[in-house]
Fold this sequence. Notes:
- By secondary structure, this protein is an all-alpha fold.
- The protein has one domain.
- It is 82% helix and 1% strand.
- The protein is built from 15 helices and two strands.
- The chain has helices spanning 4-13, 18-47, 49-73, 77-106, 114-140, 146-174, 176-190, 194-203, 206-214, 220-252, 256-268, 270-280, 285-313, 324-341, 348-367; strands at 110-111, 345-346.
- A two-stranded antiparallel sheet has the order 1-2.
- Helix 3 (49-73) crosses helix 10, helix 4 runs parallel beside helix 14 and helix 5 (114-140) packs antiparallel against helix 6 (146-174).
- The longest helix has 33 residues, at 220-252.
Amino acid sequence: MLVFIPISIAGHFLEWNPVTIFITACLAVVPLAAFMGTATEEIAVVVGPNLGGLLNATFGNATELILAFIALKEGLIEVVKATITGSIISNLLLVMGFAMLLGGLRYKKQVFQPTAARLNASSMNLAVIAILLPTAVQYTSGGIASGTLQKLSIAVAVVLIVVYALTLLFSMKTHSYLYDVGVAEFEESEGEGEAESLSKSEDTSPSDEHSEHKHGKGFILLWSGVLLAVTIGVAIESELLVESLEVATESLGLTALFTGVILLPIVGNAAEHATAVTVAMKNKMDLSVSVAMGSSLQIALFVAPVLVIAGWIIDRPMDLNFNPFELVAVVVAVSIANSISSDGESNWLEGSLLLATYVILGFAFFFHPVVEALSQAS
Length: 378
């Protein structure tokens, strides 16, 4: 599928049909995501699942941030907002759902760190509150001035960025021992069970041990370079997506709401899909859940606030006043994801529940009677 990279670029310079460019650019992201997943997993062997998940989420969301920023410059404000909420929903339901389903089909029960899950749940609840309040102010004030709403959104964005920095400080510095102890306890207790003994013996085969020994710290720079190159490639394809977005989606009969909430996040989250599902099928649910939930947190606590501030700087003002139905979908996604992940265990049925919720929301957005222009010039 690497062939779609030069095809999409050639289509751009040869001025092909926008639908063709849009589709080939989407397909070009897939092999790049596969390389990103491989590189992240190699680095995670050395730095551990928490930092490995953070690294993957950072590079994956860097692509989404670039895509959203390009759309923001083009004045596609409503599409950018829809992409933010859609990315949160996609990571919590689609990515984690597929990971739990496919991992659960191979292993009867999979375990992950409940401390991280509870921390992510609390942080996601705060993020939901933060994006709910500006919309609530708009609907309860009888018509607040756009400038005032923009100032409120910037203030909220600053708070969210501070909270994101604090969560990183807590999980990776001041209280990192909680995560390490939790992982050790899980490995020790689950190692006594028969089913887990079987999966553990498979994961710690001589070939795997040799692989972990072979891929030492000397490989971090190599795989970091791969991640950087892949991210640049995905950024180029993202720009092609944005350029062909308006005409292509209109030709395909898709609305701005459905495109932003469902279609673009699926493409943008290809890296998270590849990595989370791959490591889940290898019974590494700590890394899988860290990738899925960590990516959602970064979207809510970092990407969205950065876009609000960037829009203010480049004179493309974007506030946090979202479509109410988008907020309902985010609340539903966060609620069921927190409920399923709170016990630190997963199985194929829980993955199916997450996927079913995503499919229902997808149908709802597809049939939602919202007719908006893709271009929202300020």
